[in-house]
Design goal:
InterPro entries: Anti-sigma_ant, STAS_dom, STAS_dom_sf. With about 110 residues, the chain is an alpha/beta fold. It has a single domain, classed as 2-Layer Sandwich (Transcription Regulator spoIIAA), CATH 3.30.750.24. The protein has 4 helices and 5 strands; from the N terminus they run E-E-H-E-H-E-H-E-H.
Length: about 110
């Protein structure tokens, strides 16, 4: 059985690119939260969370992203999202979160936009 979420990161041009693959839901939120807390503890401050590999996101998933954003902002960091899935973009629009997060179509675009 495959894990419900795979998380990896790389550092590119001063940004920590966090790639998520799988589902962002009530089951995977604790893993995502812990992963991001560890990256912050390691001194990372500028994040791009790449959600292109995410097949599903629920309200708990949205909540963990908001929580991560709050933690990043408390250390004067930045957080951007990469979303290409139309349904996920619609979810962010319907919940008003598109006004909370800068959302881009690619990691390259997110890195290049201030």
């Amino acid at each position: 059985m495959e894990p419900p979420i795979e998380i990896s990161y790389s550092d590119v041009g001063g940004w920590t690119i966090v790639e998520l693959y799988g589902e962002v839901d009530v089951y995977t939120v604790p893993m995502i939260k812990q992963y991001m807390i560890e990256r912050l503890a390691d001194g990372h401050r500028r994040f791009i969370i790449d959600l292109r590999g995410v097949a599903f996101i629920d309200s708990m998933g949205l909540g963990v992203l908001v929580g991560v954003l709050k933690r990043v902002l408390t250390v004067h960091g930045e957080l951007k999202l990469v979303i290409t899935d139309a349904n996920t973009k619609q979810l962010f629009a319907l919940t008003g979160l598109r006004h909370v997060f800068p959302i881009y179509d690619s990691v390259y675009q997110a890195r290049r936009t201030s």
